[in-house]
């Protein structure tokens, strides 16, 4: 099993740090809050135990004038809160080319490193960014005498990051997962959208004109909107699966459109993602629903498992062929259901 221990052992002082494996329990929602916003911060204790991850955001969406207040606010919240076993504490620090990130990492690891599970690093361009954060964390953990390593999560939101996603996923034993960052990625790729995630009504395919119909071009033709994010999510999922870490869909900015949010989250779930960001409490329930296997899927998976006996060969169930490979898919569903109920 990969662990952070081997990677930073040369920098650790005294006894080697205990192993901390990538958490077995995937997080369905990473709930963002701005620690500089007092109203928002006051609601955090009530969310403990109801969300898988609380993430104190220091990067985009926090005004430049509030960066220090956000950092200090997160330290205060973390010190005052017992997060229990069901909720992890994460942070998103500022980007590695910003004037704030060094103080973010130094302050947070020094002050609340014992409470912090994962540091999310935005705009990761390649494995060298992860190596830098990894070494910095090792130094700070050793200095603070921390007994468990802090894990690292990368946001995939630049064209260069996407080109390097396999190396990013493999860059360190600290890697916990990767999220799609559709808003920054759209800008970096020069896409012509103006949204935070989700689809676009202009990105579609149209049914062919009916043959022999006069003025066929103007005939009623079915239109299918396409998923702008399919390619990147699929690539990210493969990179994560190769390295045993977790892939996530990122933000869905149209808070009112709960239906489209659920669709986008479900596409990501079906493609292999384990969770998504929630930017508003309404998205917590959506993520919980989408990223937990449904009772029907679990029941079907159990039926296939029972019917497949020793797991080899093929059987017919409801007119459909099941075999070793469909059983493996069912076992993925059952394992996830079990992890989430643990
Ligand atoms: C998230 O950070 C994004 O840019 O979508
Ligand atoms: Mg971004």
Main attributes?
342 residues, binds magnesium ion, 14 helices, disordered N terminus, two-stranded antiparallel ribbon, globular, binds glyoxylic acid, alpha/beta, 8-stranded parallel β-sheet
Shape label:
globular
Give the low-pLDDT segments.
1-20
Q: Bin the helical content.
A: 40-55%
Strand % is 5-15%
Most strands sheet: 8 strands, parallel
Protein architecture, described:
- By secondary structure, this protein is an alpha/beta fold.
- The protein has helices spanning 4-8, 38-42, 44-47, 67-80, 101-112, 127-144, 159-163, 165-169, 182-188, 230-243, 258-271, 281-290, 295-307, 324-341, and strands at 29-33, 53-57, 88-92, 118-121, 151-156, 175-180, 204-206, 223-225, 246-248, 276-278, 314-317, 320-323.
- The strands form three sheets. An eight-stranded parallel β-sheet has the order 9-6-5-4-3-2-1-10. A two-stranded antiparallel ribbon has the order 7-8. A two-stranded antiparallel sheet has the order 11-12.
- Strand 4 (118-121), helix 6 and strand 5 form a beta-alpha-beta unit.
- Helix 4 (67-80) runs parallel beside helix 5 (101-112) and helix 11 runs parallel beside helix 12 (281-290).
- Magnesium ion binds at residues 60, 122, 157, 181, 183-184.
């Amino acid at each position: 099993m990969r662990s952070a221990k081997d990677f930073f052992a040369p920098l650790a002082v005294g006894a080697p740090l205990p192993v901390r494996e990538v958490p077995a329990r995937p997080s369905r929602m990473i709930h963002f809050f701005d620690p500089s916003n007092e109203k928002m911060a006051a609601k955090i204790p009530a969310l403990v135990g109801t969300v898988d991850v609380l993430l104190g955001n220091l990067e985009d969406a926090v005004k430049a004038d509030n960066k220090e207040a956000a950092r200090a606010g997160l330290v205060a919240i973390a010190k005052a809160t017992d997060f229990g076993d069901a909720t992890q504490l994460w942070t998103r620090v500022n980007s590695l080319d910003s004037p704030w990130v060094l103080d973010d990492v130094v302050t947070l690891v020094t002050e609340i490193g014992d409470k912090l599970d994962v540091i999310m690093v935005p705009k990761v361009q390649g494995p060298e960014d992860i190596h830098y954060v990894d070494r910095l964390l090792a130094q700070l953990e050793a200095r603070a005498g921390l007994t468990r390593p802090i894990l690292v999560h990368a946001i995939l939101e630049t064209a260069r990051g996407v080109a390097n996603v396999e190396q990013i996923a493999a860059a360190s034993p600290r890697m916990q997962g990767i999220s799609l960052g559709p808003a920054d990625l759209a800008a970096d790729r020069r896409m012509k959208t103006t949204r935070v995630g989700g689809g676009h009504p202009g990105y579609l395919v149209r049914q062919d004109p009916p043959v022999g119909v006069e003025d066929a071009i103007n005939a009623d033709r079915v239109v299918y909107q396409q998923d702008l994010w399919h390619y990147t999510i699929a690539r990210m999922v493969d990179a994560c699966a190769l390295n045993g870490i977790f892939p996530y869909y990122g933000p869905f900015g149209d808070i009112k459109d709960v239906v489209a949010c659920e669709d986008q989250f479900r596409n990501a779930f079906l493609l292999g993602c384990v969770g998504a960001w929630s930017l508003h409490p309404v998205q917590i329930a959506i993520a919980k629903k989408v990223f937990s296997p449904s009772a029907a899927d679990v029941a079907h998976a159990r039926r296939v498992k029972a019917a497949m006996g020793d797991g080899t060969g093929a059987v017919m169930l409801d007119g459909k062929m099941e075999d070793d490979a469909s059983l493996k898919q069912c076992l993925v569903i059952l394992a996830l259901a079990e992890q989430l109920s643990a």
